[in-house]
Amino acid sequence: MAHRYFFDSVESFLPDALRGFVAANPEITWHRDPGFLARRTQTPSGRVAVLSGGGSGHEPMHSGLIGAGLLDAVCPGPIFTSPNALQIAGATRHVHSDAGVLHVVKNYTGDMMNFRIARDIVRDEGIETDVVVVADDVATESDGDGPGRRGTGATIVVEKVCGAAAAAGATLAEVTALGRRVAENARSMSVALDPCTVPGSDQPSFDLGPDEMEMGIGIHGESGTERTQWRPAGQIVQALLERILGSLGVAAGEQVIVVVNGLGSTHPLELSLVFGQVLEQLRAAQVRVVRSLVGTMITALDMRGASVTVVRADDEIVGLWDAPTDAPAWPRLAATEPGELMDTTVAEPDDAADSGPECGWLTAFVSRVQGAIDELTALDRQVGDGDFGVNMAAALGHFELPLRGSDAAVLDAVSRSYFVRSGGTSGAVFGTLFRELSKAFTESDDFRTALAAGTRAGLQSVVELGGARVGDNTVVDALDPANQTLQQNDSLAAVAHAAAEGAESTRDRVARKGRASYVGEASRGAVDPGALVISWLFEAAAG
Ligand code: ADP
Ligand code: MG
């Protein structure tokens, strides 16, 4: 059996998860008989209670939405299976005060039946209830007499608006009417890049090829309406919005709330990226996005995918959306329209070295590194994590040769470039070394004096920064012998030789600093790429 989940036993997966959930959220309690979650605080007299529920596996919906201003109780069914009518009836009794109870139900046959039976049971006991059915998934839209649109992403919008209205003292009829208004004006559609797997099962809910995606999937791992090759996010969003807006009949100038939701295993960066596309395309269609929620709210277990929900929203609905709630999973949202889609790239650093006299030795150094990116990558793959070549290319790849300017100016440009353009340890280490070299060349016009002073200061700063000693397989193994030779007034050729020997000395040692230290014995046999690059610098200085 494939083990892709944390659990102690498949059978106890759900109760074990709920145990942790209620412990982490002490305002929420578990009622074992007949099995529901509810706020610890009783519904006050005169306030409508709002109750929801459904199959488990969609968390944080619904359990995370229990709290003031949102849901009063939730009936969790087994994974992807509706709760039973007795659970729902018990929860309804529990949250009922004297103003009635609203059920928010997703449009699935089992859910519809069990909530209906529960309402019949409690009606005979004199409890007034009503229901809002959420049916927003355009992927299952049909003219025929099938079950119709499934209830998906819009559910949390309905729950939020109804919960806020109930908290504000609306009557059951008013809360119900509001919920229906939201539900009727909401549409969603989902897309998956990977299917989900039920805990304990060794089969995913459907099979997707490595380069395939599926449009129109449901939140129970139901396969979708269209399997296609992977497409860029902008195209996926375009296809989703076309269906959603078409079904909703949204016209230019209308106000909407947008939810971009992760289906379980989608990274927050991806959801932000998708939202950027949704916002851009809706704005291009002159649809006014007045509020947004981007996050993982309604999941299909561990599915990699996203859903987009668009809700036509008048000012009353927006006001209720903005109302405070202390439900643990409701994010802190801006009560304003989304802002500008700005240029969020990083500004290019001011590191040109293209005016003045040619700077021969640094041109030779940069040229050497530019021509050795693959070699450096291969070395770091052996001794470290493989990104050293990329970092060197990022720092030095953009320079047009020959470099021009005084030694101090070019060294300063190289230092800035390392700091801003390169990542990893090398950006910090080489940026620091070149900054010290630049300072020394500003202070002295004599090449040898400046190189000696800069190397000494650079070595000192690099050691202060990273604590590396000779023998740790870092740039220090080349810098330290170069520094010693420089201070002894030997020839620059001797300095270069000392640096090269220092770099070579790293070959048969195991690294103790930087990423290379994590690979241990595997690093034996290859020179440290950082030390190698340092040796090239002194070789270039020797001319
Ligand atoms: P990362 O270790 O973050 O992957 P890079 O691959 O960009 O960084 O750089 C690795 C190089 O950095 C190594 O080859 C080594 O020469 C140098 N280095 C690692 N740790 C230190 C340190 N503590 N002091 C000086 N140089 C270091
Ligand atoms: Mg690395």
From TrEMBL:
One of its GO terms (molecular function) is ATP binding. Residues 9-330 form the DhaK domain. The keyword ATP-binding applies. This is Dihydroxyacetone kinase family protein. It comes from Mycolicibacterium litorale. InterPro entries: DhaK_dom (IPR004006), DhaL_dom (IPR004007), DhaL_dom_sf (IPR036117), Dihydroxyacetone_Kinase (IPR050861). GO terms for biological process: glycerol catabolic process. Residues 356-543 form the DhaL domain. PROSITE patterns: DHAK, DHAL. GO terms for cellular component: cytosol. Keywords: ATP-binding, Kinase, Nucleotide-binding, Transferase. Pfam families: Dak1, Dak2.
